[in-house]
Design a protein that fits this description.
With 154 residues, this protein is an alpha+beta fold. It contains 6 helices and 5 strands.
Amino acid sequence: MTLAVNGHARTVEASPATPLIYILRNDFALNGPKFGCGLGECGACAVLVGGRSIRSCTTAVGTVEGREITTLEGLGSAAAPHPVQRAFIEMQAAQCGYCLNGMIIATAALLGRNPAPDEAEIRQALARHLCRCGTHVEILAAVRRAVELSGAGA
């Protein structure tokens, strides 16, 4: 099957029932999505599919064929980070960093549908993303900074 990943057509031979995260990490060497719980509960494996944040550990690859998939690597680059990535760096929102893929993907999806979210909307968007290190205060500050950097908070 052919997948549209980070703006490129990628071909893979796999059962349509294979979890998307296995294809992204093992076949395409994209390490942004992390394998956390494997049950769609923690959010570490989140990717954008058509601009929506989804859990790649519980999404069968066959269900996303022909749809645009964006991983953390596809948001921006080291030279030109996405505003959300830049905000998380500026606000030093990482401790161990394992949850950041999901937090950044969820924030990008939120800003894609609402460029000026209020505090309640930000918290709702991140509610199902777990951070075991307890950097929630820094993560919330980074999301608020991302709103500013994207132009909505200025």
